[in-house]
């Protein structure tokens, strides 16, 4: 009887663990522990407003297993129709960090749109460095992204030591 209970408990635990991995945000998308991307900011608002706007849970969509929140149903629907157009580059990781083969978190207010693409940075100070040579940094980050996709920042940090 105890063996049967142990087997059942093990099967349930394995099932729960598998489902947690199934719904967790993609490793190449910067999301918080609740799988919310861009700190809950509306990605469409970066393109349509004078400044980014916080989204609301009632208007949300999932992309690459991360949850994006929107200020309106209209913005959510625009994102769902073309997520690649509005989702931040490099999965929302710091664009300058990607130039150094790293995946750093970002401040949703440290951003720049270049050629209709959204780039985020770690913070305002890092963004100032990024702004000093945006074209070169984008080229380097584009080249590096393929090599760091699929890896956690912990793995990348260990590799650079």
Can you walk me through this structure?
- The protein contains eight helices and four strands.
- It has 161 residues and is α+β, with helices and mostly antiparallel strands.
- It folds into two domains: 61 residues, no CATH class; 74 residues, no CATH class.
- The strands form two sheets. The chain has a two-stranded antiparallel sheet.
- A hairpin with a 2-residue loop joins strand 1 and strand 2.
The percent of residues in helical segments reads: 40-55%
The N- and C-terminal alpha carbons lie at a distance of 51 Å
Low-pLDDT runs? 5-23
N-to-C order of helices and strands: HHEEHHHEEHHH
Question: How much strand content do the residues show?
Answer: 15-25%
Q: Tell me the structural class.
A: alpha+beta
Number of helices: 8
Oligomer: single chain
Tally of distinct domains: 2
Radius of gyration: 18 Å
> Which sheet architecture does the biggest sheet show?
2 strands, antiparallel
Overall 3D shape: globular
Overall pLDDT: 89
- DSSP, total strands: 4
- List the strand order in the largest sheet: 1-2
Please give the structural blueprint:
Elements: H1 2-23, H2 45-48, E1 56-63, E2 66-70, H3 73-81, H4 83-86, H5 95-99, E3 107-114, E4 117-121, H6 124-131, H7 134-148, H8 153-160
